[in-house]
Structures are given as structure tokens and as C-alpha cells.
Predict the structure.
Amino acid sequence: MSSTTHDDHIPHEQAHGDHAHGDHGHAKPGFVRRWLMSTNHKDIGTLYITSAVIAGCVGGILSMIMRAQLMYPHNHIVSSGTEWNAIITAHGLIMIFWMVMPALIGGFGNWFVPMMIGAPDMAFPRLNNMSFWFLVMGFIFVMLGLLIGDGTGAGWTIYPPLDNAHYSPGIATDFSLFSLHLAGISSLLGAINFIATILNMRAPGMTMHKMPLFVWAILVTAFLLLLAIPVLAGAVTMLIMDRNFGTSFFEPAGGGDPVLFQHLFWFFGHPEVYIMILPAFGVISHVVSTFSKKPVFGYLGMAYAMVIIGFVGFVVWAHHMFVSGISTDSRVYFEVATLVIAVPTGIKIFSWIATMWGGSIEFKTPMLWAIGFIFLFVIGGATGVVLANAGLDQELHNDYFLIAHFHYVLSLGAVFAIFAGFYYWIGKMSGHPYPEFWGKVHFWTTFIGVNLTFFPQHFLGLAGMPRRYPDYPDAFAGWNFVSSVGAMISGASTAVFFYVLYRIFTSKEKLADNYWGEGATTLEWAVPSPAPHHTFEDVPVIR
Amino acid sequence: MNRVLGWGLGIILLIGLGGHAALAQSADPTAAADAYVNAPHDWQMWLPVSGSPMEARIDWLMKYVLWIMTAIVGFVGLLMLYVMINFRSGKNKTPAHFTHNALIEVIWIVIPTLLLAVIIVPSISLIYYEADDSSPYMTINVTGHQWYWEYSYQSVPGLDYTSYMVPDDKLQPGDIRRLSVDHPIVVPIGKKIKFNITSADVLHGFYLPSLGVQRYAIPGTVVTSWTIIPKVGTYYGECNQICGVNHDAMPIEIKAVSMDDYMAWIKVAQANYVMNSYAPHPLSSPLPVNEFADLAVTK
């Protein structure tokens, strides 16, 4: 089939000559061939971003249901505790594994890492395709985990014994656990692919110390995935064995220990936090530099700060377990190790500001998201330093102060970086400009919405409201109401985003190669917009 | 005629209720704790009023760290504002091209490190303070169950009872929805109380915000914490680790009373709790709400 199609299209190709970006020397594949069997890093990147948008909507709808339930005490939007627990579990899993990670790593990583290092594609294109479809299968499984029977109700941290065969007998929990395996395989294969690509396929002259910071970010992230995912896979496998094959890794009655699972989970879980935020750091560096029209300040410091964050991120996991009965000296160690991360993170923050210093800053939509990211990430980082104090965590662990903290670094951090990257690169990906006015409306509605949602949650946490509660003492009603109003505004801002998408894809306007001008200096701005099917006709040589 | 009957009934009811309440109060040794209730209040924006020296220390360190952090956030915010105003393209047409400044890079490593040291010193001393559960006056074994708590007093033989949330439809005047329980923990004021926390089924969280106590209840393991409550009163807490369907319906209530009242309570409790030694019953079944009132009537 392929050969005939190929031959048929050759005259068509020649007729178009240079202008046929997209398919020099190759047939234009049909829909199924292009999107279901894709081996092209840009198409796979597009698939990742599309699936992240879909998963983000599902996870977002779940959070709207949650905020609707919590708007008033004694509410009955969610009919039972079982349903509630299934919703919170699915919200956490979907947002982490099927929204943030695919958008930043699978989406922007696939699209721009090969382009930025001057490589023709990823090192293993078929593996790349497989990574994506594993993710889709994982998404189907996690949805089954939400929808079948009682759903999975152990929270995204899936701590045993609550999710063992006795307390969660339904098959839904098995689906959720297997969905983590599938997402894990997807991430692992993706990580191998990124490492092989970045280490081996850089264009001549593109030394490690000339790589753009986004590539550095993805490289460090890929190593974190490579080292952390197998630990999660081991823990999940043990859980599945406990549930189905009578082992007792985490069953006290059989000599197992539930705390062991917490250690394994967070040995993965803490690097996972940096897996979500390091690519965001990379995106922000590019956006800040472009719109300040200045090279990144302290490039090597920025790159190695990420390496240090990645490294130290592996030895701080038990700060999630300060109240799990770990020893006093362990608490001291994990507190100090955790606080150390504030230093390289500070280097990043101050270097971004130094990049802006002396620049000629244009406040286009991507820059608004990037500045929003920096400031809100600083707030999330500050509450992170508070929570790192084991003595304070005894008061704040698992309450809404923690919820506010990690939504400030993820919902207001990683998500802001995703949107910064989206507005920054959508012209390169689609060839059409986004509507500047509506992009700014999207930014401001989201900014107001998410801050109104999550800032009052600090107060709820200080007052002692625990997480994962569908109903709460009436004293917490006030701030919960404010928070829910904020969530509605954030929800409405999603409609603006879809209008922006509609405008982009119905736009007739074409963009130049480098539509941001002098500030944008990385290789993706040297190729046409949209980037052609084969990025580089000749191997680019750097300097 | 009807009206007279109505009034008569009303008066009888009132007398009955009043008498009942009076009787209940005189017989309940923990009644004094009702005078001071340390519970979350509407639009609360800060930690609870300290109910224990431990919470007071947490409160102090929280303010200390949060002021430092607020200063940092404020500094970064102002810096960004300054940059955004002074280096906007409208004002600064030609961008500079510097990318290095060794001095500033050293400063922004050294100063945050020093700030961390300033935080770490008092923070570590708090960790050791919180961990020091040595030589308690008494020890209470706390066991989490789906979905209630079980309290067993080590020094009082046989005193082992369960504590359920008062369901919404059984609330009495003075009860707090989702916080009040049928049988609170009762402790003497001013004494060091140690908690041996464990679970009989899944993970639970023994969380007492106003006392600064929080530990997971883990099956197969005993995790300890402790408190001292200087003031007579009622303190509340909640389960803070997801434990299933009724995770939000197993609060903790502690009544701190004088030593005399505590001793009196032990006698009442032993007479009742030991005999009744409640078998685990699901939330749906009728609960023995306000046990002391019932007790007073039967006496």
C-alpha cells in the first residue's frame, strides 16, 4: 500500500517544490498512517499535547465537581464518600500522569528537543510512537479505575492497606494500578529516547554547554524518570501481588509493612515533583530570554542548578513521611536535605530576574504566563520551605496548607509554564498566530481564578482542615466558598482557552520563521512556521 | 382549652428538660471543660489558639519562618515589579547583553544559605522537643478503626472505649457538627500525656491542630506523640489520612479537666465503659449519644 501511495505523490511533490513544507521527498500520509502510526517527533508531540488537553479537561471537570461539593458544608453534589474518594484519586493521577507530564515532556519535549539540538528526529521514532500509545492505554485504564464499580478510592498516593484486596475489593483499583504501570512504561521509554537523542544526536558544534536550557531540563528530567519510574513500578507490582496473589509485602499480618510502601512511593514521588517542574523551568528560561531580548543570565548556573535539584531531589523523599513514625534523626536529616533544594531553586529564580534586568521587555501573552509562573512559584516555594520544617509539618501535614502549597507549584506553576510554552510555540507548531487579546484575557482570568481558589486554602489549612474531606465543620465554610468561586472563574477561563484554540485553527494568517524577532535565538526559530515534516534539509552547524 | 393544655405541656417539658440538664451536669465530671471550647471559627486565618506548649512552639516557629518567607516573597515581588517597570520595551529600547556577574551570583547563593541556617537552628530544636515523649504522667493507647477511634488508658485497668462522631441528625445544643464525639478522651490538665497510636485496619491520622499533635495510625506499628494541656477545656481534632468512605466522620474530642474531675470521671467511666465495652458498630446504628446524661438518669 505504501509504495503505490508513495509513487502517486511524487509528481505532486515536485510540482510544489520548495514550498511544500511538510513532505519533502515523502508521501503525504493518510490520517490513520499519520496519526496512529506516526514516527515523526512533531506529530507525536502534537498527539501528546492533544491528549494532555483532553486529560486536562477530564481532570478539570473532576476538580469542578470537587469544588462544587465543597462550596457549602453538608453538601450533596457528590452522593457518597466512595464516589468522592474515586474522584479525588482520579483527579490527582490524571493531572500528574496524563496532563502535566505529557504536555511538558511528551508534547514540548518531542516537538522541540530534536529541533533545538539540530537532530532530524528522536533517536528511536518507533519507540516514541509506542510511548504515546502506552500513555493512551494508561488513560483508558485510569478512567476505568474511576468509573467501574466503586472506583479507586485510596487517593493518588495509593497507600496500602486501604487499597488492598480487603478494603478495596473492586477491580477498579487494579485498573488504576495497571494504569500507573502503563504510564510508567510510557515515561520510561520516552526517557530512554530523550537521553539517547540528546547524548548522541546533537548537530556538529552543539556541545553540552551550548544546549538550550529546555534541552538541559528535559535531559535531567529523563534521568529522573529513568531512575524513579522503576521504583514506582516495583512498589505497584508488590501492591498488585498483595491484592491478587496472596503476598504480604505491605500487610502487617503477614510480616509486611505499610510504611515500606510509603518509602518506595515517595522515592519515586519526590523526583516526580521535579519531573513535573524541571521542564517548566526550561520553558520559562526560553520565554523570559526571548521577551527580554537578552540571553539567559548565568547559563551554566541555570543548567547545573537543575542537575543539582535533580540529584538532591532523590535524597529527600521522607519529608512526605514526617508523621509516619520515622525516627527523630531521620526527620532532622530529611528536613535539612529538603531545605538545601531552596538554594539551587533560588539561583533559577534570581537568574530569571537577572535575565529580565537590563532587557527590553515585551509583555506578550507567553511572557505574562512566565512572569506569573515566577512569582507564584516563589510563593509555592516559600510555603514549601515552611512545610520542610518537620516540626511545623507535624501541624500542617495533610491539611489544606499542603494542598495550597502543591497547587501553587503545580496548578499555578507547571500549568502556567505549559500555557507559557503553548502561546510561545503555537505559531511554530501550527503556523498561525494566536489572538493576543484573547490570550491575555485567558491569562488574567486564570490568574485571578487560581489565586482565588488556592490562596484561601492556606487559611483553611492553618485552621486545621484536613484534605480529602467531602464534608467539613461549618467553621470552614467561608474560605471554602471563596475557593469554590475562584474555581468557577478558573473553569470559565478554560472556555477562553478553547476560543483561543478555535481562533488559531481558523486563522488564515501565516507566520514568519522567527515571529518573535531578535530575542528568540534557538534553532527552532531558524526553520519555517509551521516546522516542516522534516525539520532540517541539511545538518545545521552551530557556530 | 387547647391553649391551656399547650402551655401546661410546655411548662412540664421545660421543667423536665431543665431538671434533666441539671442532673446531667452534676453527674458529669467533665462538664467544666464545656466552659472553654477550642474549635476552629469562621473565617479563621491563622493557627488555632495554642492549647499546649507544643502548639505554642509550633506557632512561634511558624511565625518566624513565615515572616522570613514573606520578606523573601515581598523582595522578589518588588524586584520583579522594578524590572517590569524599568526595563519594559517602552522605556528601555535597547537591551543590554551581559550574561554574567560573579559577585551577584555568589551573593544569591550565600544569602539564601545563611537564611536557611537561621531557619534550621530553631527548627531542629523543635523536632527534638516534639520527639521527647519521655516520662509521661499517663499513656493513652489510641487505635484508629474504620471509622471511629478507640482509647485505652494504660494506667486504668480495663478502661477501653470507642469514640464515634455525633451524626448530623443527633446533634445536641453545644455540639459542633463534624467535630463532636460521643465519648471524648478525658485527661487531667498540666500533666504530660503520651499517645501510643496504632490502627486496627487501614491508615488513619491522629491530628489535633490546637495541640500541635499529628501522627499516622499505622497497622502493625505503634507511633508515639505527647501533649500537655494547661487549660481546662474542650479540644478537637480529626482523622487526617484517607481511610475510606467515612474518612471525614471520625473526629477527635479531648476534654481537659482538673485532676479531681479526672479522678471522678475515671470512676464513672469505669462503671460504664468497661461494662459496656462497646463492640464496633457501624455508624448507621443508633449511637449512645451523650452517655453522661443517660447515666445520670439511670442513677
